Amino acid sequence: MSKRSSPGSDEDSQGASTDEPIRKKRLVVFEPVRICSINATSDIDAKVLAVQHYKLSERFRHKERQRDQLQKRVEQLESRQAQDDAMLCIINRSWNRFDEDVRILLQRFDAETALEGEIEMEYEGTKNFLAKLSHWENDEIEDKLKQRVEFSRRAIAKMVQVFDHITQRNEKIANLIASCPTSDETNEGASTSDEGGSNNQSKPSLSVEVAKMNAELSKENTRLQNMVTKLQSENHSLSVKVSAQEDELTLMETRQEEMTNSLEEVKYQLEKSMRRECKLDFRLAEYVRKAQQMEMNDVKTVNANGIGSASNTTNVSKSKLEELEQSLEMQTELATSRLQELQEMLEKNKNLTRQLETLKLNLKHTPSEVVKNSTEYMALQSQYSALYMEATQMRQQLEVARTQMAALRTAHAKQIEVMESEECLAQERMRDTVSELEEQLSQVRKEYEMLRLEFEQNLSANEQSGPVNKEIRMLLTSFKTQNEQLKQESSRFKRKWKEAVSLLAKCNKELEGEKRYRERCLLIEVEEEGDSLASPDQEKNSTSTADSVIDGSALEHGELAETDNDVSGPPHKVIQ
Which residue intervals define the domain BRE1-like coiled-coil containing in the entry (predicted)? Predict the structure, then answer.
């Protein structure tokens, strides 16, 4: 049951709905903005200055971080550049030493070389190779390096030619000395001539004088050779020292250039800081003047505004002055630190210039006695023999390679001819196969057209005979179901038939047993209640009982028992 609402309650509810509107919930709640209390424009200026100082401090920190990162990067690049410069100095020093050794070896063999003037010019050009390397471009560097490598290769080839010439000349001299007679032979010839001659004074022959001169010259040659090797070793050590000093000089020059650049940058930064200091001084003076004016104004307005406002303004002006004084002290400290750094850099620059001048003097005033050869002649000779043997082996290998190349070219040409013939045969076969495939394709297309037409005809026929096929299918399904039912019934009847046959067999067995039993027994009928007497003919009785048993074989087991009782009729007394 639903209760009815009273009209008064409806009116009350309507009035309540009209008086109190539905309040909507806010989805976003904003925090209230808190504005600080401000008494004068000086407070606004102080707040603005605080914000500006905070922003400037943030920028300064960011700038400091960037400066630290850039400083680390510059240090890494400087260390890498120092390593590269050291590597270049070592390579240039060893190359210059090699060129100098080759030049000294070529100078030892008189004026037989045609590259002496070119060697002098090239040697003069390679002295300042590192200094020129920094001013060249990539293409020019590659060209200059190729020229220098070509010059070194030509000098080595010329030295090899000179060694060949010297070995040939030494062989000729050795053959001449071997062909000359010795001093013993000359003495024997002289004694025989004295015995046969008139005078006993022996005169040295021409061959003896030549042998003596050869011995003296060989001794002098060995002495000069030893002296030359000694001078070469001294010259080698001095050249190594000079090349190291030259490399140090180039490095010092590059460092001096870097120091001058850094000095110019520091000077620029100093000028910039001085300008900034002047600007800050000017601003400080303006702020002091403004503060004085504000103090005067505050003094004038003390009676109007009271003691509290005057104290506030004086506190603000004092805080501004303190901040400005602190910033001024920081700037002065920075300026003094920069001046100290500049003084230290200037002192370092002066020391480096002094070292540079001393190194230049040491280079210019080297003694003339300390300028010759190295002790690597035997090493160069062994290297030359090894190179010569390698060259002969390489020539033999080159000839073998040329013969192999010729054989390979002929074999390759034959192989190409065979491949071309095989390709022609393959192309002919391919053409034949293509023609056969085209014929097969045409036949397949024809068959496809025939099949397509047959398929279309069958499709149209199937479309016409569709409903008939459906009805036939339905009939077939119904027939199948009926067949299944009939099969089930037939199986059920078979089972019943088997059961009846088994029962019949049992009954037959029982009947036969009963027949045997009755045949062995003598039956006497006794009439108890009825008036009918048993017939004396026993065959009739037996036939009637047999017929009754045969008729009741199709019935169930209980019915058979009843028929047996009925057939027996009145009770019999069996006498065996």
Answer: 76-180
Residue 2 predicted with pLDDT over 60: no
Q: Which residues, 6+ apart, have CB-to-CB distance to 115 below 8 Å?
A: 106, 154, 155, 158
CA angle 447, 453, 457 (to 5 degrees): 145
Backbone angles phi, psi at 72, to 5 degrees: -60, -45
From the CB of residue 373, how many other CB atoms can be counted at a distance below 10 Å? 22
Instruction: Compute the mean pLDDT over every residue in the chain, rounded to the nearest whole number.
Output: 72
Q: Which residues pair with 523 in a beta bridge?
A: 574
Tokens for 534, please give them.
């048993």
What single DSSP character describes residue 136?
A: S
The DSSP letter of residue 525 is E
In the predicted model, what is the mean pLDDT of residues 457-486? 86
Could you tell me if 388 and 246 are in contact, meaning their C-beta atoms sit under 8 angstroms apart? no
Q: List, in sequence order, the alpha helices (H) in 108-182.
A: 116-127, 129-133, 138-179
CB count, 10 Å around CB of 506? 13
Residue 401: pLDDT band (50, 70, 90) is: confident
Q: Is 294 or 381 the better-scoring residue by pLDDT?
A: 294
- What is the rounded average pLDDT of the residues 294-300? 71
Alpha helices in 108-137 (DSSP H): 116-127, 129-133
Task: Name the residue among 328, 232, 343, 347 with its Cα closest to residue 280.
Answer: 328
In 521-570, beta strands by DSSP E: 522-525
d(CA 215, CA 209): 10
Find, among 324, 302, 303, the residue nearest to 314 by Cα. 302
Q: How many CB atoms lie within 10 A of CB 316?
A: 17
Query: What distance in Å separates the CA atoms of residue 89 and residue 243, rounded to the nearest whole number?
Result: 9
Rounded to an integer, what distance in angstroms lies between the CA atom of residue 371 and that of residue 384?
25
What is the separation of C-alpha 559 from the centre of its chain, rounded to a whole number of angstroms?
104
Cα 155 to Cα 96: distance, rounded to the nearest angstrom:
13
Give the per-residue pLDDT at 543.
Answer: 45
- Tell me, rounded to whole angstroms, the distance of Cα 561 from its chain centroid: 106
Question: Mean pLDDT, to the nearest integer, of 195-211?
Answer: 54
Contact predicate 126/155, CB 8 Å: no
CB-based contacts of 120, cutoff 8 Å, min separation 6: 103
Our CA dihedral for 105, 108, 111, 116, rounded to 10 degrees, sits at: 30
Give the pLDDT band (50/70/90) at residue 442. very high
Task: Return all residues near 334 (Cβ < 8 A) that are at least 6 apart.
Answer: 273
Which has more confidence, 213 or 406? 406
Closest CA to 100 of 291, 216, 249, 236: 236
Residues 6+ apart with CB under 8 A from 235: 104, 370, 371, 372, 373, 374
Q: Please report, rounded to a whole number, the percentage of residues in the chain having pLDDT higher than 90.
A: 10
